[in-house]
Design brief:
single chain, two-stranded antiparallel ribbon, about 140 residues, about 10% strand
């Protein structure tokens, strides 16, 4: 499955757009819409480059979600998982109770796991609380 425009918009709304490299809440160099691969201090990009980086990252995560999730997903469930994975990485999805419950067919139980992923550097961040709530709501929405 491919990530929809709604899924991309969700990612963009929480990542925001930064054309200058910055360090995120845990000190990782980040640019564009939350891209971290290959980012260095002092880097600057255009909006077009940020869009391309976003799509490259999404296309890198899509096969990972397909590999890790063994149950059928509707469009909204896919997009919610993409936002989650984009933010946290596929290794966190792989090791999560969310994925274990989902693959066991417990969609409702999986949805309740989103809110547990609200910390960065050991601290609850209000932006992550809001993001996980939005992902959960999208995951539970009928497609």
């Amino acid at each position: 499955m491919r990530t929809s425009q709604r899924g991309l918009s969700l990612i963009k709304s929480f990542e925001g757009l930064r054309l200058q490299a910055y360090q995120d809440a845990v000190g990782v160099w980040t640019i564009g819409y939350g891209t971290t691969r290959g980012v260095k201090a002092g880097m600057a990009i255009t909006k077009e480059q940020a869009e391309r980086m976003l799509m490259d990252d999404v296309q890198r995560f899509e096969p990972e979600i397909e590999r890790l999730v063994k149950v059928q997903l509707n469009r909204n469930q896919w997009d919610a998982l993409m936002s989650f994975t984009y933010n946290l990485g596929s290794s966190n999805l792989e090791s999560s109770t969310l994925r274990r419950l989902l693959n066991a067919g417990d969609y409702a139980g999986a949805a309740e796991q989103f809110s547990r992923w609200n910390k960065a550097g050991g601290k609850v961040l209000s932006g992550l609380v809001r993001r996980r709530a939005a992902e959960r709501d999208l995951f539970l929405e009928s497609a």
